[in-house]
Amino acid sequence: MTTTISESRFSVDPWDPGYAAALSKEALAELGATSAELDLDVELAAADWRPVGPGPGAAPPGVLLVADGVRRIDARVWMHDSRGAAPAPGIAASYAAGIVRCGPEGASLAAIDVRRSVFSAAPHASEVKTPAAVYQALPAADAGMDELSLALQRQVTQLEVELAVHHRRQAGAEDLLLVDGPLRGRTHLPRTVGYIKTHHTAYLPPPQAAVVSALAPGQRTPIFLMGTSWRRHAWYVRLPTRSATPWAGVARCEAGADLRPDEVIELADSITLALPQLAGVDYKDPRAPQNLTPIGGLEKLLRHRLGDPRLLYRALRTAAAA
C-alpha cells in the first residue's frame, strides 16, 4: 500500500510488524557487503542479469511435497548427577515435522511426527519421564543456550528429512520437495528446493540486487552459486503481491551445489510456476504472500500437535519434585 501525504510518499511493507521484516534494515544497509563467495554467471553473465520467467518447455511439478517443522522449549532444566557432579543446564523441548502433498486433486496431509527430547551436554543426562510425556535424552555440544537451541534445530531438520525420505519411498512417484527454510543439512535429497521467506542478509551486489527489486510476480532472478560455510545454488522469486515496496513478496530459493546448470534451471522454473498458486493471502496470514498456504496450515496443525505447553510444564515440574 502506498500513502500520499503532501509531497512526500512512503510505502508500507505488507509483512506484519509483529514479525521480523521480510528484508531486515541491517541487510538493506549492508547490501553488497556480504562475505559470501558468489558465482553470478551460472545462468546469465552477471552483466546481463534481468528478471526471467520460466522457459517455454517448463512445467510445474506434478506433485509438490511441502515439508516443515516446528519447535518449542517446554522448560529449562538442570540435569543432576547422583555421583555428585555439578548440575548441568539443559532444555526440555517438543518438536514436530510434517509433509503436505499438493497435487491435481488438492492438498492433503501426507505425514506427521511429534517428538519430545531433553537436550544437555551432561554425560549423565537421561530421559525424563513425566505424567504427560517422556522426553528422550539427546546430547548437545556444550551447555550454552545457543548450542542447546542448535541441537534442537538439528533434530527438527533430521525429522523432516526422515519423513521426506520415508514418504517418497512409500509413494514411489516423481515429485518435487519444498522445505521451509535453508537447504542446509538436506542438500543430499533429490529434487529438493529450500524456501527462505525472511532475508537476514543481502547476498547480491547492487547491480544484481536491483534485479530483485525489478521482479514482477511470477518472475525470478537468474541462478547464482554462493558459498558461506556451505555451498548452494540460489535464486530470488517474487510472489503475487499488491505492495509496491522493493522486496515485497520476494523469497529466496536454494538447490544443491552439485547440480548441473540445466538441472537447477529446470528446478527453478518448475518451482517458479508452482509458487504463485500457493502464495498466502494477507487477510488470512500476516506473513503473506511469502508464507505459503500449505506452510501456514501445516505450522498451525503441528503447533496444535505439540500439546498444551502449560500441561507439559506442570508435568515437568511434578516429575522434578518426585
Mind summarizing the main beta sheet? 11 strands, mixed
**Continuous helix count:** 6
User: How widely separated are the two ends?
Assistant: 57 Å
Proportion of residues in helical segments: 25-40%
What sequence of helices (H) and strands (E) makes up the elements?
Answer: EEHEEEEEEHEEHEEEHHH
The structural class is alpha+beta
Low-confidence stretches: 1-15, 24-32
Strand fraction: 25-35%
Radius of gyration: 22 Å
Reading side by side through the largest sheet, how are the strands ordered?
A: 3-11-12-13-10-9-4-5-6-8-7
InterPro entries: RNaseH-like_sf
Organism: Spongiactinospora rosea
Protein name: NurA domain-containing protein
Describe this structure in words.
The chain is of the alpha+beta class. The protein is built from 6 helices and 13 strands. It has helices at residues 25-29, 145-171, 206-214, 261-278, 293-305, 309-321, and strands at residues 2-5, 8-11, 37-39, 64-79, 88-103, 106-120, 128-129, 134-139, 176-180, 192-196, 224-227, 231-238, 250-256. Strand 11 and strand 12 form a beta hairpin. The model is unreliable at 1-15 and 24-32 (pLDDT under 50).
In short:
It contains 6 helices and 13 strands. The protein is an alpha+beta fold and 322 residues long. It has 2 domains: 164 residues, no CATH class; 127 residues, no CATH class.
